[in-house]
Amino acid sequence: MQIEATGKSVELAIQNGLLECGMKREDVEVKVIEAGGLFKKAKVVLVWGENDQEEKKSEELEKEDENKVHEPEQSTNQIMENEETDNLNENTSEEKEKKIRIVDTSRLESKGKEFLLGLAKQLDENAVVESNSGENEISFSIKGEKLGKLIGYHGENIQALQMLLSGLKLRNERPIRMYLDIDGYKQNKNQAIIDLANKTAEQAVKIERNIHLDPMIAYDRRIVHTTLQNRDDVTTESTGEGEKRHVVVKPIFKK
């Protein structure tokens, strides 16, 4: 089965398609038809098999997954907007384990660097791509002087490229986290969100009222949840639908 979806960017087109078909990112194959541009929407096709063993999860369960944050000792770079990483902690049967191949990180790292360098060189001949790989993750970093178009509006293009990198993994390989940063944009943005979360928490406690943050993508919302998860004076939850989904910071009134 397949559906066609559009959006302002490849990432948003994929998200729109996933919302429409009710599937998860790891359960579909993404085919980019149009990358989009300043005056043109991106177009993608999501394809999935009729005999997939994974059942569709309800919207309520997806919202619960979003609010499940990582352990405090993990860095924000380990927080994924992409729910593909959930499968890393699932207990699978021995039969299923035999069918899943160990990820060839060296192949993915080489392919990813080749793909990103080809894009970056079109904008900056002096651009370089660095990478680091771990057991279940690969991080890529592009450095250059004229890479604004690769970053995109509010980092949308970074997210789209990150999802395309995930598509380099073979379908029968284990899930692996793929991270991408360009000229430190995401690192700086993550820190700004952490600062915002802490400032909002202090304000919520001071005025004793709930504070609604502006709509954010899932990756950014999880940073807020993770940043505030160990505080005993506030709690957080996500609310809203689609592009209006946002985090609410709520003060805890002690008896």
CATH topology of the largest domain: GMP Synthetase, Chain A, domain 3
Name given to the CATH homologous superfamily of the largest domain? K homology (KH) domain
CATH architecture label name of the largest domain: 2-Layer Sandwich
Name the poorly predicted regions: 50-62, 70-77, 79-99
Counting helices, strands and paired strands, the structural category is: alpha+beta
The percent range for helix content is 25-40%
* Rg, alpha carbons: 19 Å
- Helix segment tally: 8
Residue fraction in strands: 15-25%
Give a quick precis of the structure.
This protein is α+β, with helices and mostly antiparallel strands. The chain has helices spanning 10-21, 59-66, 94-99, 105-123, 148-151, 156-166, 185-207, 218-228, and strands at residues 2-7, 29-34, 42-47, 128-133, 137-143, 177-182, 211-212, 234-239, 246-251.
SSE map:
Layout: E1 2-7, H1 10-21, E2 29-34, E3 42-47, H2 59-66, H3 94-99, H4 105-123, E4 128-133, E5 137-143, H5 148-151, H6 156-166, E6 177-182, H7 185-207, E7 211-212, H8 218-228, E8 234-239, E9 246-251
Parallel strand pairs: 5-6
Antiparallel strand pairs: 1-3, 2-3, 4-5, 7-9, 8-9
Helix pairs in contact: 7-8
Verbal overview:
- By secondary structure, the chain is of the alpha+beta class.
- The chain has three domains: 1-48, no CATH class; 105-183, 2-Layer Sandwich (GMP Synthetase, Chain A, domain 3); 187-251, Ribosomal Protein S8, Chain: A, domain 1.
- It is 37% helix and 20% strand.
- The chain is built from eight helices and nine strands.
- It has a three-stranded antiparallel beta sheet, covered by helices on one side. The chain has a three-stranded mixed beta sheet with strand order 4-5-6. Strands 7-9-8 form a three-stranded antiparallel beta sheet.
- Helix 7 crosses helix 8 (218-228).
- The chain starts with a strand and ends with a strand.
